Amino acid sequence: MDEIWKRLSEVDRMILESYYLDGCKMEDIAKRIGYKNGNSVKSRKNKVLKRIMEITKEEEMDFKDMSLAA
Fold first, then answer.
1. Residues 60/62/66/69 CA torsion (nearest 10 deg)
2. Contact residues for 55 (Cβ-Cβ < 8 A; gap 6+)
3. Is residue 9 very low, low, confident or very high in pLDDT (cuts 50, 70, 90)?
4. Which of 25, 28, 30, 69 is deepest in the core (most CB within 10 A)?
5. Contact between residue 32 and residue 18 where contact means Cβ atoms under 8 Å apart
6. Handedness of CA 7, 12, 18, 23 (dihedral sign)
7. How far is residue 18 CA from its own chain's centroid?
8. What is the value of pTM for the model shown?
């Protein structure tokens, strides 16, 4: 997970940390990072989560390929 976290931009990490760890509302996060509104943050959060899922699937496939080659 650390490798995936490192691949995210600082803004993406800030959005996820603020929302999931700090429990901030979307509007508050938008103000903090300079976005127009909470909907923009929500959209970005969802795109980041989708990207994390894609990266996870790619890495899982790479791991399976490595184990088959061994």
1. 120
2. 4, 7
3. very high
4. 30
5. yes
6. negative
7. 12
8. 0.80
pLDDT single digits (tens) 15-69: 999 999 999 999 999 999 999 999 999 999 999 999 999 988 887 766 665 555 5
Structure tokens at 17: 């940390």
In three-state form (DSSP H/G/I as H, E/B as E, the rest C), the secondary structure along the chain is: CHHHHHHCCHHHHHHHHHHHHCCCCHHHHHHHHCCCCHHHHHHHHHHHHHHHHHHHHHHHHHHHHHHHHC
For residue 1, what are its two tokens? 């997970």
Give residue 29's identity as a one-letter amino acid code.
I
Q: Decide: 17 and 46 in contact? Cβ < 8 Å.
A: no
